[in-house]
DNA sequence: CATGAATGAGGCTTCATTCAT
DNA sequence: TATGAATGAAGCCTCATTCAT
């Protein structure tokens, strides 16, 4: 057959991205087949290749999109320049908020690095590095100012990002805790982890 | 042909376990083939089926082994009964020490839950639950005693375990930091995350 | 979208023919895809179907074109009627000249017969037969006159045509030998092969 | 399922080689699918990969086998050392005899060079070169002795080999002419093509 | 205890082709 | 005149698995 009446490239492209994102996040890149994605989208597997050169490129495209959007979202934030504590809280809240709304993107972004081959790996790593640098810079500033008790900004950055990303392993929307509540809890733990928590968490 | 001269069941069994562990950790369960494992072990793929009924069972066996050993190791510890702070520090140090020595086991244990099918999933989940309960109990006791500032012991437990497991995403042995140093840093961050850090980290 | 600005049917038609000719000759009909052709021409694959009903028909069209032009070129020659030796030399020179200028057409014409399906096969075979008959008639006349030493005109015709076509397997323009030189050598060998060579080849 | 009762690797290996040889010769490497081969052999397509790493390697293996056997057969011949004319006739007869019995191998060997990718191409080219050198050496010796009237030994070698190989495009066993007769005719033409034919062909 | 030979399902991908626009 | 979006069949190949030996 041929072009389906009323079919539209932009719509299909979006559907492919969303579907693969969800599947990769839930089952892992290697465990998801192109046919599985196509079935969900409602097209033949061969149609996927109009939009992404191959499965690997599909992963790279998804990860690049996410990282670029994440960096753009951070750039668009109204960031407090001075106080490192406020900056860390701001970053933490931003990250958690962004993450809680896009659990799949963030999860893939951290877990499927191992599925990347060159040259995609280098490209995505560079973008990731730029995001991690944001956090590291805040931590370094706080160390210099003496307000953070941190042994190593690299390790601390990694630990904090891992902690937050980990929410995905157990969080299911509609669960016992609201997203706002989870955000509060994690922010409090992040601040505590760098030796910087004056006020207690507001217990409900 | 039959038995290769000098072949030994116990040795092969061990080699299969170690090899699949390493491969599953590095590339993910779905991305590893039985032949890949067999090649590394130095046997034919068909020989793997003497030791594990199928690929899924191989994963279950590895995960069960790990969880059982982890729980046994905890039982074997000389645990301080009273003080929740000491208990948490003890648990954290135990977990980190155990984890740093067995990064692959721990990583698989957390990441490949999604690859488990029933009835293996239920079995492993139950074992995992027993381990998580250890941490949750400590957290609950500390909350009751008023020494921990925790909003929700379940969330806190998850966040702490995720943080520690995350070391795998960046730690490479022989790197800039010694294992002992990393352990210290993480312990300090874990304690801080539950609002409980009087002394600073010892900076090198 | 529709017609690209400045597009022109005749130009595209010619480009398709030339491109597929070159690709079929170099890689073989079965190894060439419609997209490959389209990419080289600079159009979408679907556009090819405006000019040829399908891939098979594209091959038939190319082969028919070639055979028809070859036969017309022969008809247009100023042919010596009488002497079979002169006729053979004339035919040989004509064929070699024509072939050296159109290696792709000739090569396809001989090699891709096996890729033809009915009814195209019958059509092309008939045209080919007409061309072979020209050579066979010359050989037969030479036999009757006693100037050729030939066992079987059919076999001889096939052997001679194969010999000449074979130049393609090694000839590259701009190589050590000029086209004229190659023509001389082959003519000499063709004449020799039917037992009819008084003068030696002019050695350079 | 598993190993078929009574199945034997050597038998299957031979069957795969013979079947692919026949199919590649008749339809061309690119036009033959692995399934087609497997169907004829009576196994699943996947079984082919126990014997050849991939389709390309299957072609290389077939071509290497042929070239090695051809060279060995030539080595095993009782070759007349002195007279170049006798040597050429001997070579021609050997080649034609060998070729008439193995039309498929020879045909593939000449026609599917274009389907070879590196590093197979280099390997096969080297073997082919060794065979061509045999003929070229004879031609050169005859030139030096003044018994052959040849302009260029390389071109002459190519033309002669092409001529002989060409028999495949029309020869079908059980046809009008016996294999012996065809051999005679071609030998006579080969000798003639290098300006060296005293006696006529024996007409039946 | 282990292999060697095989299977059949399914992996990713490319193919020729169609047809609404 | 040409494209852009799609199809469905088929391409090569790998997979987990089986079982006679």
TrEMBL record, chains A, B, C, D:
InterPro entries tied to this protein: Homeodomain-like_sf, HTH-type_TetR-like_transc_reg, HTH_TetR, KstR2_TetR_C, Tet_transcr_reg_TetR-rel_C_sf
Gene3D superfamilies on file: Tetracycline Repressor, domain 2
Pfam families: TetR_C_24, TetR_N
GO molecular function ontology, one term from the record: transcription cis-regulatory region binding
Record's keyword annotation contains Iron: no
Regions recorded as binding DNA: 33-52
HTH tetR-type domain segment(s): 10-70
Keywords (A to Z) from UniProt: DNA-binding, Repressor, Transcription, Transcription regulation
Listed name of the protein: TetR/AcrR family transcriptional regulator
Source organism (scientific name): Oricola thermophila
């Amino acid at each position: 057959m041929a072009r389906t009446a009323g079919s539209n490239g932009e719509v299909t492209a979006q559907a492919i991205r969303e579907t693969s994102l969800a599947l990769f996040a839930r089952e892992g890149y290697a465990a998801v087949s192109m046919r599985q994605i196509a079935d969900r989208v409602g097209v033949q597997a061969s149609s996927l290749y109009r939009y992404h050169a191959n499965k690997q490129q599909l992963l790279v495209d998804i990860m690049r999109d996410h990282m670029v959007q994440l960096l753009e979202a951070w750039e668009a934030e109204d960031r407090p320049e001075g106080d490192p504590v406020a900056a860390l809280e701001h970053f933490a809240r931003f990250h958690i908020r962004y993450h809680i709304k896009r659990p799949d993107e963030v999860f893939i972004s951290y877990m499927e690095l191992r599925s990347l081959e060159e040259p995609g790996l280098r490209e995505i790593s560079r973008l990731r590095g730029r995001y991690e640098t944001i956090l590291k810079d805040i931590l370094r500033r706080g160390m210099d100012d003496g307000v953070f008790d941190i042994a190593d900004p690299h390790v601390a950055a990694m630990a904090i990002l891992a902690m937050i990303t980990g929410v995905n392993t157990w969080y299911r929307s509609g669960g016992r805790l609201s997203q706002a509540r989870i955000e509060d809890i994690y922010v409090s733990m992040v601040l505590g982890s760098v030796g910087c928590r004056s006020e207690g968490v507001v217990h409900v």
